[in-house]
Amino acid sequence: MNESLFRLLNERLEKRAVERGPDATFEIVCECAREECTVRIPILVAEYEAVRSEPTKFVVVPGHSDASVERVVDATGGYEIVEKLGEAALVAEVENPRDG
Amino acid sequence: MRRTKSEPEPGGLLEIGAVARELGVAPSTLRTWERRYRVVVPLRGRRGQRLYDPEQVATLGRVLAQVRRGARASAAHDLAVIPSPVRTSSVRLQPSTHAPLQARQAIDDLLGEPDNPRFAFYLRLVASELVKNAFLHGSARHPIRMDTKLFADAAELRVHNGGGRLTLRMLRRRRREGGRGLDIVDALADAWSIDTGPLGTTITIRLPVAQSA
Fold first, then answer.
1. Where does chain A have alpha helices with state H?
2. Mode of pairing for the β-strands spanning B50-52 and B14-15
């Protein structure tokens, strides 16, 4: 599941930014399903933490969501937050790097 | 039929005297290295004699070369035992928007059916980011070269582009602007380096298999 692998990468990118505090901005890679997509999304550490507190939620560039496996639950100018549905949600939970 | 001590054993194995003569050291030196540092542990023959295969002799030759350059024997062993890549590939890519995708394809060709999909995913990602970087900032007239060595526990990826020297200031600016791929490389690789000069820039990274698990 590409989204989970991008999420793992973003966790590492966040780790380097978290020392600068919750108001620090850093860039994550779009957590959509397309492996070739490496569009950058500027995001606050605090905002990313809020998304990451729920293992089924991911951050994607507007327009990169896939309605067959997820729904958009929030949107700002720069990104959308999507929530995985059904089997994709189960996979997202299993692949959650913060789970154990 | 008795064989003399210096006669090669079957299978190309050599006894300690022959190896010592070939390398120009005393047999006691080889025994000491073996006992103290575990530098090459030979096989044993029926009489208990030490038997060295050609690869062990070659390793001892490399150890000796390092010692003669001033390294301690214990450290020389680490320097001399060079792991061999399982597979390698070398591709030249024309600097274009297609180059990152071609880099991904080259990684797929090298890996075949990957045992570790995560490792494959991250290796493709790092390759495409480095090649994209080379395309964006390198010379449009010179091909991008990507060399990949696949080891049992890691991959070593080297991407070279022609063009001018990359300065520290340029590198810092790129990192400030989101890294343009270097932040991804830094997050995933356990080691990386940049070699830059007036003829071009080479970035080498080592991506471990284990951290991708």
1. 2-17, 45-52, 86-94
2. antiparallel
Residues of chain A neighbouring B129 (CB-CB closer than 8 A): 38
- Report the distance separating Cα B18 and Cα B190, nearest Å: 42
CATH 3.30.565.10 fits B87-212, yes or no: yes
Which residue, among A38, A41, A91, A94, would best test binding to B if mutated, counting the most B CBs under 10 Å from its CB? A38
- pLDDT tens digits, one per residue of A19-37: 888 888 889 999 999 998 9
Residues of B in contact with A9 (CB under 8 A): 122, 125, 184, 187-188
Residue-wise pLDDT tens digits, B128-174: 999 998 898 888 899 999 999 998 889 999 999 988 777 767 766 76
A1 in contact with B, Cβ within 8 Å: no
Q: Is B207 on the interface with A (CB under 8 A)?
A: no
Q: What is the DSSP letter of B71?
A: -
The correct CATH number of B10-80 out of 2.170.270.10, 3.40.50.300, 1.10.1660.10, 1.10.10.10 is 1.10.1660.10
Report pLDDT for B3.
45
